[in-house]
Amino acid sequence: MNIATRKTDVLVSVHDARLHYRVGGAFAAMRGKSTVVKAVDGVTFDIRRGESVGLLGESGCGKTSMGRLLLKLEETTGGSIHFDGEELGKVQRKGLKTFRSRAQLIFQNPFDAINPRFSIRATLSEPLENAGIPRGEREGRIIKALELVRLPEPAQFLDRYPHQLSGGQLQRVVMARALILQPEFVVADEPVSMLDVSVRAGVLNVFRDVRDRLGLTAIYISHDLALVRYVCERTIVMYLGRIMEDGPTEDIVHQPLHPYTKALVAAVPVPNPDQSHDPLPIGRGAPDPRNPPSGCVFRDRCPSAHARCAAEVPQPRQVGTRTVACHLF
Amino acid sequence: MPEIAIPKSTISKTAGIRRPHIVVRIFQALKLPVNDPFAVAGLVIYLVFVVAAVFADQIATHDPTEILYTPSYDLAADLRPGQDGFLMGTTSLGRDIFSQLVYGSRSALLIGVTAAFMVALIGSIIGLVAGYFGRWVDAVLMRLADIAFGIPFLPFVIVLAAFLQPSIWNVVIAMALVLWRDTARVIRSQVLTLRTRGYVEAARVAGSSDFKIILRHIAPNILPLSFLYGSIAIGWAILTEASISFLGFGDPDSISWGYMLQDAFASQALAKQAYYWFVPPGVCIILVVSAGFFITAVMKTSFSRS
Prior knowledge:
Chain B: Keywords: Cell membrane, Membrane, Peptide transport, Protein transport, Transmembrane, Transmembrane helix, Transport. The complex is a heterodimer of chains A (about 325) and B (about 300). Chain A has about 325 residues and is α/β, with parallel strands linked by helices. Chain A has helices at about 5, 25-30, 65-70, 95-100, 110-115, 120-130, 135-150, 165-180, 195-215, 225-230, 250-255, 260-265, 305-310; strands spanning about 10-25, 35-50, 50-55, 80-85, 85, 105, 185-190, 215-220, 235-240, 240-250, 315-320, 320-325. In chain A, helix 6 crosses helix 7 (about 135-150), helix 7 packs across helix 8 (about 165-180) and helix 8 runs parallel beside helix 9. Chain B has one domain (about 40-305): MetI-like fold.
């Protein structure tokens, strides 16, 4: 990347990113039986500063793997990811330290994301300690971060342990930990999926408010189109490690183009128990990721699949406001 | 009358919370399994031998290596218990058996504790590193563990003793070199599950170094396991030292129970029917080793329950 692109408003740039796992040991490889699972396979997109992008897909589609790649918790096995002009693969030591304070993760399961032996104070001190914040300033920043996520009377929580907090409170602590170093980029991996429905809205609103107030660039990973619509202006739909459709959320909700997106939109539950649901136009389960179909990975479940879909991998094409990877367009 | 029906325990509770005695609190902090009769027996046996080892100079009636004489200036050899004031009799060379037994607990304790410490320390570090870093680090360390599993332990100690000067430390070195394998394997498997926990990943995102993550987030969770394997090693070390000394590869200058058995065997104590000579050290070995196993067995069950 040259200096010129650093000045652009693109914060994260993913180019043909791949994350392939080899399954089966050395012996399987010798017998030619080892297989490759392509968790992320040739994904390309840019995220502008301040943009909120939803990463949408069913379980196993590679959305969490994509999030882990973006935070350098996993190394790409191909392609590249640039964060503010710097290639993540080359970030080392000091650069990594800076990156860790600029990019953060909000965890899916708040009950697992905080060490049960650590008090809330100790949990929130860890990132500050690593960033070299002097001891005297830490308490003030911890209180501020907890206020930011609207945990009432934060001081009383400092010496409590995770088991003394409710799920909603814990998830706020997890968010406070992610935000305490004032990052620019936050990946939220299904942050409300482990919470009771009753506290979801509260946590989601906090997430939205904080994001707007701090001008965060955010990725919101979810399998729930309704949640993504509530939080993100842009949505990327993934299926078996590839991007199917990428565009403004409202356009995708009102007029999905890709057959898979259509099925996703049709699957969103309607809050009316009497309304019967038309059977989804796609087959039931996703194929074995070790052995995906040739050509378009979605073709074995696609109602409009034709001969070309088996022969050729559809390349992303610009259709109006969106990019779609389908031979129909 | 309802007051009479109140059980005694309730009364003492309502009478005000009294802080337990300092000794009780130390025991509680150690989380020793004091509810189990076997564990209590083991702890009592340990306590007796630790006291004997620490106060050996005060308890022993004679220097264990000194050749003694009777009041009539004869060599005090092969005296029966109680004869001429020797509590448990004397050896064929005129040494006091009781004093040897007391000093024997000192070398048993020394070997047991140092060997246990070494085994627990090396095993824990290797297990932590292999489990946390995985990949080739794990592969290399676990193949080393495989090799260590392939080494026959007793012959290894004998060969080591043959190369080095005969010394009680040979047993400690041999145990450190070979017996880390069990501890390392078990701790590695524990670390493999711990490192997938969300809070370990969270620490990485928070910018913590690998060293810090291992020390603060993983090591505290495997500490009870290291402690367990360390205490198993105590029994092993004492047993091994006894075997080595009995086979004649021990340190002739230090008195241990194994050395006493060897001395008795070489002096044909059995033919002389000198049971007072070889039975006590044998019983001591059995007591200490089984005490360790009593405690660890209880710890193991409470560990797997939690």
